[in-house]
Structures are given as C-alpha cells and as structure tokens.
Design goal:
The complex is a heterodimer of chains A (329) and B (254).
Chain A lengths: L1 E9 L4 E10 L4 E5 L6 H8 L7 E6 L2 E2 L4 H6 L1 E4 L11 H11 L4 H14 L15 H13 L5 E5 L7 H14 L4 E6 L2 H7 L2 E6 L2 E7 H8 L4 E7 L3 H9 L4 E10 L2 E8 L6 H10 L3 E7 L4 H10 L14 H5 L1
Parallel strand pairs in A: 3-8, 3-9, 6-7, 7-8
Antiparallel strand pairs in A: 1-2, 1-4, 4-5, 9-10, 11-13, 11-14, 12-13
Chain B lengths: L1 H14 L2 H34 L8 H25 L1 H9 L2 H5 L5 H33 L4 H27 L4 H17 L10 H9 L5 H6 L4 H28 L1
Classes of the chains: A alpha/beta (329), B mainly alpha (254).
Chain lengths: 329, 254
C-alpha cells in the first residue's frame, strides 16, 4: 500500500530524513516511533505530498507522490500534529467543507458527514463552533476530517499529543476501530501507545531508520532482561540487599532512596529469567514487609540507546552503507 | 468548483470575524462623508450659479459622481490590505494550510478561491456606496453609463490590489506584517507617479504608468480605456502568478 525507497529530505542546513526505506501492507497499523525531531513529521509530509523529497521515492497505492500527487492525495487522509481546523466554523460546516475539498460527491456529503461525526463521537457538537471545543474534541474533529472521503491510507501525526489520559484512551480505541478498513501510519514518541495500537513499529532517530519489526518481536528482543522495582519495609538495608541478591536469576541489586524504614531497590535479572516471584518469596520468607514490586518498562530513551549502540544487529532494517543516491543528489 | 468552495469559506470567515464589519463600517462612514461633501458643494454651486443668472445646466456626473469615485478608489488603497492580510498568513500560522495543500485540489484553485473570496467582500463593501448613487437618481438625472464604468473600474482596481495583497499574505505567517506590507505597496503604487508631475522624462512616464490610481482616472470620468483595463488585468495576473510561485517555494522550503 505504501512504499518508501531511499527517501531523503534535506533542508538548507540539515538532513531531516536520511535514506529511509520501508513498506506497509494493506490494512496494517504501523507505528512510527521516534523522539522529537527524528524526522517523523517530515516523512509523513512527504507521503501526503505536502513536501517533495530531495531524493528517493515514495508511493501510495502504486502512485508516486511526485508524479501523481492528485491520485495520492485522493487516497490519503491526514491529521497533522495540530488538527487543521478553522475555529470560526461549526463542526458540520467544517466537515462539509473538507468533504468538498476531498471530492466527496455532493449528494453523498450529508450522509458522510453524519457517518464520520458518529464514528468519531463528535455528533453531539455538530452545531458548535470549533473554536469553543476542548482539545480532545478538536482532535476528534481532526480525525473525522481525515476519514471523510474514506481514504485507503490514514496518516496521523501524534494523534494523542496533548490530550488528557481519558481522551488518549478514547482516541486510541477510535484508531483501533478504524484499522482494517484503512491502512494506518501513526507517529508517536510514546512507546506504550505503539504497543497498544500498532501491529508493526518503525523506529527512526536522527532521520535514520533504526528498527522495523512487529511489536512483539521488538519488545521481547529488547526486554530479554527484566528490571524490577522493589520497596521493602525492614530495619536493615544491607540485609535486604543481601537477601535480594541471593534470589536465583538476579544479576544486580541497586539500592535507591529510603525513608522511615522503607527501602527501595532496582533489581536487574539475568537474560531471560523471571525473578519477580522469587523476589516476593525472599522478602516474605525473611519476615520483611513487601510494599511494592513491579516491572520497570524500558523507556524509549533506553530503547534508543540499545538500538543505536548495536547497529550491526539491524542490518536488515537499516542498511549500514548508505546508498549513493542519498549523498550524491 | 473547488475555487468556489474556498471562496465561499473565505467570505464566511470574513463575516464571522470583526474584519468584514470593521472594513464595511469604516467604508460606509468615509464614503458617506465624501458623498455628503460633494453633494453639499454641488448644491452650493448650483444656488450660486442660478443667483448669478447663469443658465447652463450643472452636471451631476461631473460634480458629484466623479469626485466620489476618485475618493472611493483612494479609500480602497487603505482598506484592501485589511481584507487580504489574513488570506494566507492566518492559514500558515494555524497550520490549516496543510489541509489545503494535502487535499486533491490544485494550487490555482486555492489561490483563485482566496482572491475571489476577497473580491466578494470588496464587492459587498462597494454595494454600500450604491445607496448613495441611488439617492442621486431619486433627486436628479445623472447619466448611468459613467456610473457603471466607474464601478467596473473600482472592481478592476480593487482586484489588482487584492491580487498583490494575496501574494504578500502568502509570504508571511504574520497577519500584521502582511497588512502593513500590503498597505506600503499600495501606497507606493499610488505616489509613484507624483514624480511625473514636474518631469516628463521617460523614467517619469514609466513611473506614471505604474501608478495604480492614475489608471482609475479614465474610469472615473466614465471612459473605457483599453490601456487601463490591460494595466489592471496585468497587475491581477502578476499578483496571482507571484502567489503561485510563492506557494511552490513554500513546499520546497517548508
């Protein structure tokens, strides 16, 4: 459905996207993961024909973004980082306006507007000025706008940025509900978001593709070793530390802050070992009180450190030798 | 079709913001005042000439319509930048330009739509002055041909400044900058021929040709001059053409 080959986008002073290649199958949800400034938005803007690539090609449904931009634009629904809404318009007016722009036939327009308003849960504010809506509603109006012409491909740039937790969950469910009918690319810098919504992940950093895999593969690969946070109520910190170190599978125990007899530790396991049951048992058996025990997820930062530290493992995803096209121009 | 969709949206936005009302109210006030002054002057002259026993008929078109038109054309210089300043600057600031540029419509229909939207507000503004003209018909017998030609001239001149303003608005994210720059350009195109009032060199004649108000003279008199029509149409073309180029460069720089 989407095919990107050797895509490079260079601005006057910096290279925003450097020789990225990937493919997305029809009906998939793909997460585009990377820190701010990694080149996510730039890649999306190339796919939506907003920016021309410096070199390389990108195509949507078989149409090249540079040769047939009109065909590509007809097949793409795009939600930029800030929803492109006009505050002085009412919701239904706005959706009708976008529908017309996207070429929805006028006899079908009212039906489509009602349908997407229903789907994105903005039907109750149809007659409200967009400027008076909350951020969450604006975001949903932005989503409704993106699917009004029933596009094959949906491109969502940080669809949950700046929403409160409740709204984030709603938006994620909405996006999941849209999968299947549409091929979706969504960008984010939040790892759990990808885990919850996407089937595949593309990780980019500093304009380069660092990894491309299914979520399950990626997380298991990166979480070979377990990290656990423990809080124990006891009298002697050193004794607790010794006790934890003796649990089978533990590689390291790092004492953290303590107050009023509560001691916090970070415990790291050996590769592929589950240490949480053992830890709990050790604490209880020793007669201490176990206040807290939970697995610490790898933060995105750590994943990046891991991924960028061992580039030879990901040769299949990111060619180590950049192809000449990107450099020669 | 898409042009019309965008033009309608622009007109709608104008009337949902204070801009349309501010511009129209200001225009009604100033144009009404000029009309009043011209009519009052005309009536005084009429009384004086009849007291002196002169019997040649006073010409309404010459004494009222022409000065009113020429004043309206000057007001346009001040008001049109206020109409055009938000056209693109606003969309660039809020990011809605991404919606337009990723929709399956051509740059040309976006630009034409924006310009047409501005034209419609300008036309609505000019309609306010039709009321004054109607009063002339109620109490006198002015010739309607020069009036029609005058309005045509106002539309052409307005269209030309609107096209330049559209271009300027496309060059910046800041409405105020777009407004001030638009006003500066309009002012420059007005005063550029003042040099020719005391000089007749080639350069002065070129400057005089460039002056935007100078070309309105013939329309104000009720004369259709191809040279002036061509001038305004070329300025409209140049303005919209520059806008199109600036849109393209926007994609490359972004």
């Amino acid at each position: 459905m989407i095919k990107v080959e050797g895509l490079t986008k260079r601005y006057a002073r910096k290279v925003a996207v450097d020789n990225i290649s990937f493919e997305v199958e029809k009906g998939q949800i793909v997460g585009f993961l990377g820190p701010n400034g990694a080149g996510k938005t730039t890649t999306m803007r190339v796919l939506t024909c907003f920016l021309p690539p410096t070199s390389g090609t990108a195509s949507v449904a078989g149409f090249d973004v540079q040769d047939h931009p009109m065909e590509v634009k007809k097949r793409i629904g795009y939600l930029p980082e800030t929803p492109p809404v006009y505050p002085e318009m009412e919701v239904h007016e706005y959706l009708e306006f976008v529908g017309r722009l996207k070429g929805v036939p006028s006899n079908d327009l009212t039906r489509r507007v009602n349908e997407v308003a229903e789907k994105c849960a903005v039907a109750d504010v149809r007659k409200t000025l967009i400027g008076k809506l909350s951020k969450g509603y604006k975001q949903r109006v932005g989503l409704a706008q993106a699917i009004i012409h029933n596009p094959d491909v949906l491109i969502l740039d940080e669809p949950t940025a700046g929403l409160d937790p409740h709204q984030i969950i709603e938006t994620r469910d909405l996006i999941k509900g849209l999968a299947g009918e549409h091929t979706i690319i969504l960008s984010t810098h939040i790892l759990p978001e990808v885990e919850q919504t996407c089937e595949r992940v593309i990780i980019i950093a500093k304009g380069r593709l660092v990894a491309m895999d299914t979520v399950a593969n990626l997380t298991s690969r990166l979480r070979g070793a377990e990290t656990v946070a423990v809080e124990v109520l006891a009298s002697d910190e050193a004794a607790v530390q010794r006790g934890l170190e003796q649990v089978a599978g533990v590689s390291r125990v790092i004492p953290k802050e303590h107050r009023e007899g509560k001691f916090n530790f970070i415990v790291e396991s050996l590769e592929g070992r589950h240490i949480r049951p053992g830890l709990a048992k050790a604490v209880i058996d020793a007669g201490w009180q176990l206040n807290e025990l939970h697995a610490v997820g790898l933060s995105l930062e750590e994943i990046f450190l891991q991924l960028t530290a061992t580039p030879e493992e990901h040769k299949e995803a990111a060619p180590a030798e950049p192809v000449a096209a990107g450099e020669a121009q | 079709m898409n042009t019309w969709t965008i033009a309608k949206k622009e007109l709608n936005s104008y009337f949902r913001s204070p801009i349309a009302y501010g511009v129209m109210a200001f225009f009604a006030l100033i144009a009404g005042y000029f009309f009043y002054v011209s009519v009052a002057y005309f009536v005084r002259q009429g009384i004086m000439s009849s007291m002196q026993g002169q019997s040649f008929p006073m010409d309404v078109n010459e004494f009222v319509v022409r000065p009113v038109f020429s004043n309206i054309s000057v007001i346009g210089l001040f008001l049109i930048p206020m109409i055009t300043m938000r056209l693109f600057a606003e969309e660039k600031r809020t990011g809605t330009i991404e919606l337009l540029l990723t929709s399956p419509i051509s740059d040309l229909s976006i630009i034409m739509g924006k310009w047409l939207g501005g034209m419609m507000l300008y036309g609505a503004m000019l309609l306010l002055s039709v009321f004054s003209m109607a009063l002339l018909f109620a109490y006198g017998q002015p010739d309607w041909h020069p009036i029609a030609i005058g309005y045509l001239g106002l539309l052409l001149q307005g269209g030309a400044i609107l096209a330049l303003g559209t271009f300027i608005s496309n060059c910046t994210k800041n409405q105020i900058v777009a407004g001030v720059a638009g006003f500066a350009v309009a002012l420059l195109l007005w005063v550029v021929d003042w040099a020719s009032s005391f000089e007749t060199s080639l350069g002065a004649r070129v400057l005089s040709y460039l002056s935007i108000l100078q070309h309105f003279d013939s329309f104000g008199k009720g004369v259709l001059d191809t040279k002036d029509i061509v001038y305004y149409l070329s300025v409209i073309f140049v303005g919209l053409f520059l806008t199109a180029r600036s849109m393209e460069s926007l994609r490359w720089r972004a």
